[in-house]
Amino acid sequence: xxxxxxxxxxxxxxxxxxxxxxxxxxxxxxxxxxxxxxxxxxxxxxxxxxxxxxxxxxxxxxxxxxxxxxxxxxxxxxxxxxxxxxxxxxxxxxxxxxxxxxxxxxxxxxxxxxxxxxxxxxxxxxxxxxxxxxxxxxxxxxxxxxxxxxxxxxxxxxxxxxxxxxxxxxxxxxxxxxxxxxxxxxxxxxxxxxxxxxxxxxxxxxxxxxxxxxxxxxxxxxxxxxxxxxxxxxxxxxxxxxxxxxxxxxx
Length: 251
Ligand code: ZN
Description:
The chain has helices at residues 65-70, 143-149, 153-157, 200-208; strands spanning 2-8, 11-18, 21-26, 35-42, 47-48, 57-61, 80-84, 89-90, 95-96, 105-106, 109-115, 131-138, 141-142, 162-169, 178-183, 186-192, 218-220, 229-230, 235-240, 244-250. The chain folds into two domains: 2-48, SH3 type barrels (Roll); 57-250, Fumarylacetoacetate hydrolase, domain 2 (Alpha-Beta Complex). The longest helix is centred in the last third of the chain and has 9 residues, at 200-208. The chain is mostly beta strands. The chain is globular and about 55 Å long. The mean pLDDT is 96. It has four helices and 20 strands. The two termini are 33 Å apart. A hairpin with a 2-residue loop joins strand 1 (2-8) and strand 2 (11-18). The strands form three sheets. Strands 1, 2, 3, 4, 5, 6, 7, 8, 11, 12, 14 and 17 form a twelve-stranded mixed beta sheet that branches. The chain binds zinc ion. Zinc ion binds next to loops. The site of zinc ion has 7 residues, from loops.
């Protein structure tokens, strides 16, 4: 199923997409059995929000073989992890703000794992039980500041630098999903999650060995080859098979 979070009248609701409509969820989206309200909303009449509100976004650097090859970088022995703050999140259709202090802004199309329950030091064969589903995430990066600072916090953390959505797809096998990003209709990234160096189950286990993961926490699994820069006015579309299309514009 596809889970959405959206603005509905005066409140914020979670729902499940059912043949073009949204069936509103009653209670927590993280409970073992999802319960429903006797209420629907029209998908094309609501404002979709980031499908989840994480306590943290854990990102993985250099995790695609095709991207490592493109950069002539060796395959890392362990995942390189870093954080993006929850304040950087925006939803589908929201604008990415190009900061005046930045000279090079890049897109990074990524498959994002959404954590279902408290996860600490689990073995990778238990990871699937801790995953609610998958969504798309654009790890927007101020590339000039990343190089200048020598560490990544400022470059990755500006408000609006983390578009997420449009939905959380559950029951998805993440081993071989097509991932694509286009800018103004021109394809820039086109790959498969099968090119990942460290797979989903390993990443959940590895990161949970470092920090406790909470329901709703996001793990962004790295970007494939074809990373490039953006200009003000650019329209970005990130498409992941089985999840949908996440559209945002640079202003
Ligand atoms: Zn990234």
